[in-house]
């Protein structure tokens, strides 16, 4: 996703060093926060976990999804009664089916209906196994809340390096200090631009985003919330989606002038991890701000 933030202050990554060891990858970052203060953080992550993240495609492999649908249909077809034959195959990026029956048109229609249900179930299983979900009948999206939950433990070394070990959960100032530190760190990571011809770069998972030192708005949103949950596991958090953009929200009391909204009685304060603008808690770009105020946002709370 692409979104441009305008601000007088920009997160500036002054230095980054990544050493790829056989057992661990070592990371060292230096950046300037919203107060133009130099901040540094160093941490290590298991090589196996980083490599695994780097191997995951940034976009869903539609050929694999279609193959999952075909296999699900074939398993369903194996259970059809004698006299009903159903076949499925891939063709030009879609799934084709044919059915023959000695039991009449009604049996054929029932077989096709069952095959479509089997294909949908097979697709849902593949999506779930690969970190995706259905936004609607025709749109696939990243299962952001699941990613945040799954990566909370994996990014704990990063959270500790950012001062997470010193946070007092019952102290609002302490919580806010950490949230803003984590936010500026993610904002300073370079934005991953679209490819040739404006092709979507896709979604980069948290460890791959760190390893490649780049990511777009939804990848940065996931990383920032995983860093929050690693330190404050009981704090309500959410990924917020608007057309062509993603940002986050955290369940803390809003201070005067901070952009916020309510969901089921919980106040959520908005935050923009995408960068390069350094915007603290409760601040957002014009498009995000207007959408929040009008209630035109798609909120995915992390359980």
Written description of the protein model:
A hairpin with a 5-residue loop joins β2 (24-32) and β3 (38-46). α6 (172-188) runs antiparallel to α8 (217-231). The protein has a five-stranded antiparallel β-sheet with strand order 10-11-9-8-12. A three-stranded antiparallel β-sheet has the order 1-2-3. The longest helix is centred in the middle third of the chain and has 25 residues, at 105-129. The two termini are 24 Å apart. It has 303 residues and is an alpha+beta fold. Residues 1-9 have low confidence and may be disordered. The chain has helices at residues 47-54, 62-78, 105-129, 144-151, 156-161, 172-188, 206-212, 217-231, 286-294; strands at residues 12-20, 24-32, 38-46, 84-91, 94-101, 132-134, 140-142, 237-242, 245-250, 260-263, 266-271, 298-301. It contains nine helices and twelve strands. The chain folds into two domains: 62-129; 146-301, C8orf32 fold.
How do the helices and strands line up, and which of them pair or pack?
Layout (H helix, E strand, L loop, with lengths): L11 E9 L3 E9 L5 E9 H8 L7 H17 L5 E8 L2 E8 L3 H25 L2 E3 L5 E3 L1 H8 L4 H6 L10 H17 L17 H7 L4 H15 L5 E6 L2 E6 L9 E4 L2 E6 L14 H9 L3 E4 L2
Antiparallel strand pairs: 1-2, 2-3, 4-5, 6-7, 8-9, 8-12, 9-11, 10-11
Summarize the structure.
The chain has 303 residues and is an alpha+beta fold.
Q: Roughly how many Å is the radius of gyration? A: 23 Å
Q: What structural class do you assign from the helix and strand content?
A: alpha+beta
Order of adjacent strands in the largest pleated sheet: 10-11-9-8-12
Average of per-residue pLDDT values: 90
State the end-to-end CA separation: 24 Å
Fraction of residues in β-strands: 15-25%
Can you tell me the CATH class of the largest domain? Alpha Beta
Tally the structural domains: 2
Low-pLDDT residue intervals, each spanning 5 or more residues? 1-9
Strand segment tally: 12
What is the CATH-assigned architecture of the largest domain?
Roll
- N-to-C series of helices and strands: EEEHHEEHEEHHHHHEEEEHE
Helix content: 25-40%
Number of helices: 9
Largest sheet: 5 strands, antiparallel
What best-fitting shape do the alpha-carbon axes yield?
elongated
At the fold tier of CATH, the topology name of the largest domain is: C8orf32 fold
